[in-house]
Amino acid sequence: MAGFIGKEQHAIDAKGRLMIPARFRKRFESLQAGTKNEASPDSVFLYVMKAVDGSLELYEPEVWAEKEKSLSGLSDFNPDERMLKTLMYESLDSVEMDRHGRIALPKDFMQHAGITKDVVVIGANVKMILWSPEKLSSVLRKNSSRFQVLAARYF
User: Fold this and answer.
1) Which residue, among 134, 130, 131, has the nearest Cα to 48 in the 3D structure?
2) Tens of pLDDT along 42-55?
3) CATH number, domain at 116?
4) pLDDT band at 89 (very low <50, low <70, confident <90, very high)
5) Which of 3, 20, 113, 152 has a 20 to 30 Å separation from 12 between CA atoms?
């Protein structure tokens, strides 16, 4: 099944909630139809993570579970591995999508991303990336000349 693809701009409401774009919500509906969750069949939980570039990333539980396996394999007795776990988990939270398709973003996460009202939601296959429109515009402007070099290197 295709992942999240596309870009949309939405606004944060007065209660700090973001409406997940309808085309992305459809993916959750089809995933829910294929799973049986007797405890709470209508609940959709997402993992939100502060990214080092100043954006936020939203992951479905199944996608985050794969990352969790890697983190679980790290040793608490190796200082670098322990620090990575600390940094990752400090930057992570879970949010529930309500029946209207909204999620409440934690305030410190919104501050990290510079999100006050408007949000650009980018579908990046296995995740959604949330940007403040101003930050995204700045990042794209600063890095537009790198696209061709990066694409040639990785494709």
Assistant:
1) 130
2) 678 999 999 999 99
3) 3.40.1550.20
4) very high
5) 3
Under 8 Å between Cβ of 142 and 53: no
User: Strand pairing partners for 95?
Assistant: 46
**The most confident of 40-49, 58-67, 115-124, by mean pLDDT:** 115-124
Q: Which domain holds residue 43?
A: 4-154
Q: What is the pTM of this model?
A: 0.86
Domain count, the chain: 1
Say what the pLDDT of residue 33 is: 53
Residues 6+ apart with CB under 8 A from 61: 45, 46, 47
Nearest residue to 104 via CA among 119, 126, 90, 82: 119
